[in-house]
Amino acid sequence: MERTEQPSLLYYDLSGCLVDADPSVAQHFLDRFSADDIAHARHAFVRAQSGEPVAFLDSYLIGLPDETGTIRGVVEIRDPGDAVQSSVRAERERYRSFFMHNVDSIAFLGLDGSVLRKNEMFEEMFALSPDERIADSWFEFLEPGAANEAREAFSQTLVGEAQEFDSVLKASAEMPPIPIRVRFTPLSMDGEIVGVSAVVKNIAAERVAHEHMHNLAFYDPLTRLPNRALFEDRLTQTIAGAKRYNRPFALLFLDLDGFKSVNDLHGHAAGDALLRAFGERIGAILRESDTFARLGGDEFAVLQQLSRIPEDADALAEKLIESLHESFPFDGKALRVGLSIGIAVYPWHGITEASLLDAADKALYEAKSAGKNTFRFAGPF
Description:
Layout (H helix, E strand, L loop, with lengths): L7 E6 L24 H11 L5 E3 L2 E7 L5 E8 L4 H18 L4 E5 L5 E4 L1 H6 L18 H15 L4 E7 L8 E12 L2 E11 L1 H15 L9 H18 L3 E9 L1 H8 L1 H18 L5 E6 L2 E7 L5 H13 L4 E3 L2 E3 L2 E9 L6 H17 L5 E3 L4
Parallel strand pairs: 15-16
Antiparallel strand pairs: 1-4, 2-3, 3-4, 5-6, 5-9, 7-8, 8-9, 10-12, 10-15, 11-12, 13-14
Helix pairs in contact: 7-8
């Protein structure tokens, strides 16, 4: 006859100590659990004291009442021969393997934000040894400004709302600040939130790729100045601000005089060097509030906020033309170019992108026709 192993019963007092303990058996309910499971085991034991039967791992915990109905202890019923429980244990092992070897950094946080359990990738990201614990709170590893946002997201997660946000790990002696993306998900047991899972991704490479794509889309690769697409977007924003705050501004079209001769006489390398140097020289003259862009070839544009009309635009145009009196050195040669400028002022010469661009372009043509190396406004004020 096949022998059937009977369920075992273990009795604990309310402190968790085993009653009438066998020396070969753990003396306290929590003694046999790993550090990973202690928090959940403690929670299950406390719930059992309320009189509610609680299933935990391969056991059932039931509070024992006395004749008055008061819970005086907890009984644990263990059935090692139960096929269902064996299946649960196998599932837990599969889950444990998935957790520990996941390519993402994962940690389980307690209700106070402390790290209860972490996988290998988390230890690597936070430069922790396997037996090292985060002393007080996970948030201490974040930059101060980022920690406040993370705490707010954590609070929202504790009321049952998963949160995802970008943050920054503090710099250390071994590594610079690391941009990360964090997803907080509430961990529930029998309908009650007992902690939070944190999945942390290093998004430094993603940021670099995004910045690279942004630069390709909106910046000139030669001069690193805003390109036509970004300039037109800035122009649209500037017009919107001008309408809202009644704030005039000037649009200056800049075209280099004699640039083709530089390319023809000295080659395209000389022309490229001149364009880069021109961009740096003009950029040093402009204010931070001005927008300076390369539209293509040797054509550039400036958006200038005005407080005096048209004196501010007049003075800037003269300064820009004067800045080209000094030659640009290249490979032992002195490269010289002039500058023609066409100016349109909002709202006198136009109130839309198209009308302002057309007015500035016509003013530039007039400056070229007037002998170059000068500037013209787009008609009378």
